[in-house]
Amino acid sequence: xxxxxxxxxxxxxxxxxxxxxxxxxxxxxxxxxxxxxxxxxxxxxxxxxxxxxxxxxxxxxxxxxxxxxxxxxxxxxxxxxxxxxxxxxxxxxxxxxxxxxxxxxxxxxxxxxxxxxxxxxxxxxxxxxxxxxxxxxxxxxxxxxxxxxxxxxxxxxxxxxxxxxxxxxxxxxxxxxxxxxxxxxxxxxxxxxxxxxxxxxxxxxxxxxxxxxxxxxxxxxxxxxxxxxxxxxxxxxxxxxxxxxxxxxxxxxxxxxxxxxxxxxxxxxxxxxxxxxxxxxxxxxxxxxxxxxxxxxxxxxxxxxxxxxxxxxxxxxxxxxx
Length: 322
Fold this sequence. Notes:
Blueprint: H1 5-19, H2 26-33, H3 37-49, E1 55-58, E2 63-66, H4 80-92, H5 102-115, H6 143-155, E3 157-163, E4 171-183, E5 186-193, E6 198-203, E7 207-216, H7 225-229, E8 242-248, H8 253-257, E9 266-269, E10 275-281, H9 285-292, E11 298-302, H10 304-320
Antiparallel strand pairs: 1-2, 3-4, 3-7, 4-5, 5-6, 8-10, 8-11, 9-10
């Protein structure tokens, strides 16, 4: 459907102008709609030969007119599933509510809605209240921070930020922003940190101030975010790779196997109904948080040092309740 939306919008425009009775021609229509004269000519031929529109050129007035006063453009053919997808997309926008990008997305969606024809060969889905989208928890990002970072990302402009990590004071850094990432309700910017002389990841919610330095940079030709993040589990990564083996209890086996948690995961079933999952990651921080969410239903088999780290964390948690 998307392929013909621009043309259908032009057809509606041409139809409206012809109905005004002012004898528009290809040149005037092209100039007002800001397209080429040939494009308008093709549209009129399409209306005449494909839609059977009674549109004729009147030499006396040097423009077009409908020879049938009550002519109406036929409804555009659109599948109900496609139309439902458009309306459901509006509900999916709720996951970005509260972020600086939300208003922009709503504006774009409104333009998509406006580009749809006034009538279709199927009625819109009648009851949208049957579907609800619960948004994920999201961090708060100051609009001015969002605008500055995204602008510098698009224009490859260097930016100076004041960045605050937990339990530490804000530190000024010069950053060459390479790539933006959305992950679990937070936005991150990946780029070269001049302070650390390395490519680092920064949460936009932790940037206290941001301003362009007025300098531009060139993203290194060997920078590839997909290759850099590689076997990541979450938004953090490191240079090396770690083989991990996990054992999930029978009680949660179905919940674990019904999803793809990581591209490298391999799952096998144990005789007692437990499952073993093996995967290769390049950072353990997000994996650790995920494992802790499963409580007593998961055990780290390998590597041993990771198992000990999980054990120490759980022991500390128990002591907190003593």
